[in-house]
């Protein structure tokens, strides 16, 4: 593989640089995560991120594109995604109009007909955009929720991710001048195949520790009162220790925090918690289970601790 | 590849000692890869080469970074993390101390030789069979009851006398009888024969429509790309129409098998059955439970059925213990359902319904399970006997949530299960609303309790 020529990369000579830069984008990364990102930048290998929903997998791609000051190309996967929607499609309407026009004007048709399947009539979809040789800087390619796509699509990605090239029968092979930075996320609703995993660096994003989550709230919501942030963090951690069908992720915590702020709360109170619990828990079972607990007592406990 | 002159020069200036160090690291890395491979993390030479190159990018004297780098390069799943961690500390901290003492250099050489001598269990078994040693027989004897063993011995004598006569005819009728016989009454020979027959069974599972489309002779969606292409020769007058049609794919299958004490007569044979199913179909997830749920999909991936079953028994800790179906299903629903029940999965529960757990829990979890899969099939080995009534609390509670309640006591019943599976279509089975209502009330009862 060619050495990276992309000048923005020179900013990141060490793991600390990456960690610092991510912090400047309000993303608090462990050293282990920073290592993974650093290696993925250095080796230009795709980074496969797994973890519970709402722990900030997709966010990494956004942060990365901001850091590198380059375009973010996002491919949201879904069941049935295929080449036409992910890679390229021919612009049939234009093709047919063009043919009609050729018929009207009596120019050299033989040559013109060949152009029907030329670059002018090609509609680029995210994957092709990502490896377009005309890109001045390699973009960040986010392949989001890969587990939602079918096995066939995953197999197609294998070729793309190892050589960063796409073959269009009518035009030829298109290869990226410089490979894009690829972030793949998965929620594990289906197991990603080993062949794809082997081509990636793997990182499991866990729920954050208490201190880390508190820090995240502070950086993301500097306007929030300190006491409230502390109590919210502790409360969410308390919830995660209970057995819930869907434990709240960081994005739920932030969501809840902003709900509480909208309710003008300075401190956690039982009433406010009950009113806004829907921002934190998204399943009826979980709501009933937590609703059945003595929330006042939990809050008392949190206050005692702080 | 671009040659990189500056780096080449740098390498030339390395002292002999440094080169030796580098080689030693590579050697150690290979050894570590081998250790990971042996402990079940599949690491290939390609990945090791890749890691070696990756290590250039970091400062390897920082142990933390070294650890994270190896970790994110070598593991491919979350489940492997604890194993990796242990192996890492074992190999890079503990072993290196031992190595420094230089005590067991000889020892290590020995071990490697031994390792090469070691054959995989399946090969050893074949070898043993070949040499007519009784090792493999001894292992399987455990599946018979003592009285049957005596019987077998007697039958052995009888068989030799009956050997004359049409061999094909007798074989066929013997198979016919075998197919109808309850697993419970099988002799050792019959168990072997049944296993052989099971291995020959072919499985296919009902198809579901995917959301992908493939070119087809006729279909409901126009294939624009081919159409423009084909009709260029007519000056793009759309004369030949081309089509795409929705693709069909087999549904995923999830098997949850009871291996508690009351099922012990059946469970080993059923494991063989599960092994053939999971090797015959593309997308099968398997779990066993007694008091706790264990996923055995990976163990069953092994080609040789005896190896697979041995692996399963090693990893399962509650063979022939008590049963808490409700708790097992609870665990399944919370930790696995979202990962394996996508794409219209069919769930197969194999259990006799003897349950020592809480009926309310079971009701709630059965309800949830039924509503998150396409079809819920319950196989009950007891159902084969004509006077069986589902009177146990576990069975009575579960029954309203089961789409198909079928026996699994002999080979014939398994064959008809095959027919049932291949006939599953897109239509939704009728599901009882009164059962749902009961489940909801059980659920609120449970949540009200402290």
UniProtKB/TrEMBL annotation, chain A:
Q: Tell me the superkingdom of the source.
A: Bacteria
Molecular-function GO term, any one:
ATP hydrolysis activity
Q: Which InterPro entries match?
A: AAA+_ATPase, ATPase_dyneun-rel_AAA, CbbQ/NirQ/NorQ/GpvN, P-loop_NTPase
Q: Where is the AAA+ ATPase domain?
A: 43-211
By its UniProt entry, which PANTHER family does this protein fall under?
Answer: MAGNESIUM-CHELATASE SUBUNIT CHLD (PTHR42759:SF1), MOXR FAMILY PROTEIN (PTHR42759)
What is this protein called in UniProt? ATPase
Q: Which organism is it from?
A: Dictyobacter vulcani
Automatic annotation (TrEMBL), chain B:
Q: Where is the VWFA domain?
A: 250-416
Per the record, which residues fall in region Disordered?
101-169, 428-450
Source species of the chain: Dictyobacter vulcani
Q: What is the recorded name of this protein?
A: VWFA domain-containing protein
- Indicate, by first and last residue, each region the UniProt record lists as having compositional bias (Acidic residues): 154-164
Transmembrane regions listed in the UniProt entry = none
Query: Could you tell me which InterPro entries the record lists for this protein?
Result: UCP010256, Uncharacterised_CoxE, VWF_A, vWFA_dom_sf
Pfam families, A to Z: VWA_CoxE
What residue spans carry the Basic and acidic residues bias annotation? 101-153
Which superkingdom, per the lineage?
Bacteria
Alphabetized CDD domains for the sequence: vWFA
């Amino acid at each position: 593989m060619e050495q990276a020529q992309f000048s923005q990369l020179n900013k990141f000579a060490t793991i600390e640089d990456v960690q610092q830069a991510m912090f400047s984008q309000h993303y608090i990364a462990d050293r282990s995560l920073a290592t993974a990102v650093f290696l993925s930048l250095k080796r230009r290998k795709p980074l496969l991120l797994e973890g519970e929903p709402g722990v900030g997998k997709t966010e990494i791609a956004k942060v990365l594109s901001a850091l590198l000051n380059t375009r973010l190309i996002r491919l949201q996967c879904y069941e049935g995604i295929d080449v036409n929607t992910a890679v390229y499609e021919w612009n049939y309407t234009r093709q047919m109009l063009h043919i009609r026009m050729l018929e009207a004007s009596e120019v050299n048709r033989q040559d013109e007909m060949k152009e029907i399947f030329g670059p002018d009539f090609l509609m680029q979809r995210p994957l092709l955009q990502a490896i377009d040789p005309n890109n001045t800087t390699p973009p960040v390619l986010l392949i989001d929720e890969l587990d939602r796509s079918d096995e066939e699509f995953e197999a197609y990605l294998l070729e793309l991710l190892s050589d960063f090239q796409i073959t269009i029968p009518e035009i030829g092979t298109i290869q990226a001048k410089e490979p894009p930075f690829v972030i793949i996320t998965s929620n594990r609703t289906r197991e990603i195949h080993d062949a794809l995993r082997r081509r990636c660096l793997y990182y499991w994003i866990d729920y954050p520790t208490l201190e880390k989550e508190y820090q995240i709230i502070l950086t993301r919501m500097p306007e929030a009162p300190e006491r409230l942030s502390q109590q919210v963090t502790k409360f969410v951690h308390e919830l995660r220790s209970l057995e819930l069908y869907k434990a709240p992720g960081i994005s739920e915590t932030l969501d809840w925090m902003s709900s509480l702020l909208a309710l003008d709360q300075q401190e956690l109170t039982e009433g406010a918690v009950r009113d806004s619990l829907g921002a934190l828990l998204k399943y009826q079972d979980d709501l009933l289970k937590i609703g059945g607990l003595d929330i006042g007592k939990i809050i008392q406990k949190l206050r005692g601790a702080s | 590849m671009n040659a990189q002159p500056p780096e080449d020069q740098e390498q030339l200036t390395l002292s002999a000692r440094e080169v030796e160090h580098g080689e030693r690291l590579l050697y150690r890395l290979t050894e570590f890869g081998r250790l990971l491979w042996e402990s079940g993390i599949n690491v290939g030479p390609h990945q090791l080469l890749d890691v070696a190159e990756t290590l250039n990018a970091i400062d390897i004297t920082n142990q933390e970074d070294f650890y994270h780098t190896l970790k994110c390069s070598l593991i491919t799943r979350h489940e492997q993390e604890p194993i990796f961690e242990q192996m890492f500390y074992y190999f890079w901290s503990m072993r290196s101390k031992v190595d420094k003492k230089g005590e067991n250099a000889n020892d290590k050489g020995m071990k490697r030789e031994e390792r090469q001598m070691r054959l995989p269990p399946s090969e050893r078994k074949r070898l043993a069979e070949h040499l007519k040693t009784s090792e493999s027989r001894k292992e399987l004897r455990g599946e018979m009851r003592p009285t049957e063993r005596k019987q077998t011995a007697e039958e052995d004598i009888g068989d030799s006398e009956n050997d004359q006569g049409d061999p094909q005819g007798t074989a066929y009728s013997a198979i016919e009888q075998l197919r109808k016989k309850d697993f419970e009454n099988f002799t050792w020979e019959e168990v072997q024969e049944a296993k052989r027959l099971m291995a020959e069974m072919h499985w296919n599972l009902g198809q579901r429509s995917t959301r992908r489309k493939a070119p087809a002779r006729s279909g409901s969606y126009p294939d624009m790309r081919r159409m423009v292409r084909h009709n260029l020769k007519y000056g793009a007058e759309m004369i030949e129409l081309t089509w795409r049609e929705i693709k069909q794919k087999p549904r995923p299958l999830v098997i949850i098998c009871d291996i508690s004490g009351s099922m012990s007569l059946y469970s080993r044979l059923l494991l063989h059955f599960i092994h053939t199913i999971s090797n015959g179909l593309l997308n099968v997830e398997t779990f066993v439970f007694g008091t706790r749920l264990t996923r055995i999909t990976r163990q069953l991936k092994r080609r040789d059925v005896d190896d697979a079953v041995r692996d399963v028994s090693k990893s399962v800790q509650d063979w022939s213990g008590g049963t808490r179906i409700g708790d097992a299903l609870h665990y399944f629903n919370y930790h696995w359902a979202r990962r394996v029940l996508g794409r219209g999965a069919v769930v197969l529960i194999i259990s006799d319904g003897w349950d020592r757990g809480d009926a309310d829990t079971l009701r709630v979890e059965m309800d949830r399970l039924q509503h998150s899969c396409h079809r819920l099939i319950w196989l009950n080995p007891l159902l084969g006997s004509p006077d069986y009534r589902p009177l146990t609390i576990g069975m009575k509670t579960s029954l309203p949530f089961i789409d198909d309640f079928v026996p699994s006591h002999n080979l014939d019943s398994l064959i008809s299960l095959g027919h049932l599976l291949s006939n599953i279509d897109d239509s939704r089975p009728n599901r009882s609303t009164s059962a749902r209502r009961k489940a909801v009330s059980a659920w609120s009862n449970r949540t009200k309790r402290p």
